[in-house]
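Narrative summary of target 7.
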Amino acid sequence: MKALLAYILFNTIILTVSAQTDSMSVFVCDNLKQKQSITQDITKQNGITQDSLRLNVLAQDSLKLSSITQDSLKLSSITQDSLSHLDKKKKNFFVRAYYFFDRILSPPRDSSYIDVQNYNWCAEVQLTNRFELLDLDGGSEFRLTVAPKVRTRVGPFFGWRFAFLGYNIDIKSIFLNNDDMDLGGSVYSSAFGLDLFYRRVGGNYNIRRLTIKGTDYSSLLKGEPFDGINMGMTRISFYYVTNYKRYSHQAAFSQTNRQLRSAGSLILGGAYAHNRCTIDWQDLANTINERSHQQYIAYEGFGYMKNDEISLTAGYGYNWVFSKNWLAAGEITGSLGYLIQNNSLRGNVNTSSSNMDILDYLDNFRRKYMCFNSTVRLAILWNNGPWFAGTQGIAFYYQHGNEQITSRNILGTVYVYVGFNF
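Modeled conformation, tokenized:
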């Protein structure tokens, strides 16, 4: 019995100790899991902190790199300014002036209307036929109309970007002495243009009409050569094309650009001219005497005229593109100017305002101080870029004078040309 009680007590103690041991094991396991969880949380927090530190380092590096880049840009800007300043110092006055005028003379244009070519040079051969009619009207004193024979001239023309210069030679007088001289030059740009003329005609006229103090000698002298007239003109004309972005004066009259679509423009400008005219009345009297077999006394009236002209010009031009690479162009301008007389008068000319009514005064003012000019240009041409060919007609009308005489000069020219750009 005692042994049985001792066995039961021993087993009870063993079970109690085992239960406590299991409870302790569970507690220890729970503690270990909590510690592992805490350790993992700490590790995650450390990872986040490390990532934050890395981001901070990267941000600092980016700021340093941005600062270095800005310093580099500043240094580059300073270097460019220094180089530009040095380049400007190296460029002389003529180079700076060239770039200045290039910006003014080559403003932007509408590429759908104008094909701006990249050629700098132009060369052409031009055949010129010239027609002229000169009418000297002295009122009731005399009226003389002369015209030279049609002149055929040939000559080379060269152009560099805006400038165009050429010289015409009279084919009939290549091997003969001739005092006639006809020089012309032009400066063309998209918006502006400048025409230069220097003309000296030393006779070679034929009489068309002659009336002196009511006596008509036209039938007697018609067709007779008369070398007693000398004409001179030095003229500078300036113009501005208002619609230069779409209308190309160069495409029509200098072939340095191509008009792609039809367009027109108002043209404004001005001109200065120096005109002179002399008549040898003794030479004319000798011609009359030879033809009439009578003694004619030379007229002692008008002998020469010299004046300076300042005028303003307005007109309109239109370019018609009727097929690919083909262009038909037309332009008409008129000018009204003021004359500055440089000659003294001879003959019985009444310039006293007390003996004139208002109409006579206005007519005298018009004859002495007013001048009228006009120009008509027509052209048809083919231009594919490097090569061009065409024909052009120009008619000039010049009217000027003084109290004694009114000079009317009609000058017509027809050009046929072929050339190339390079």
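The chain has six helices and 19 strands.
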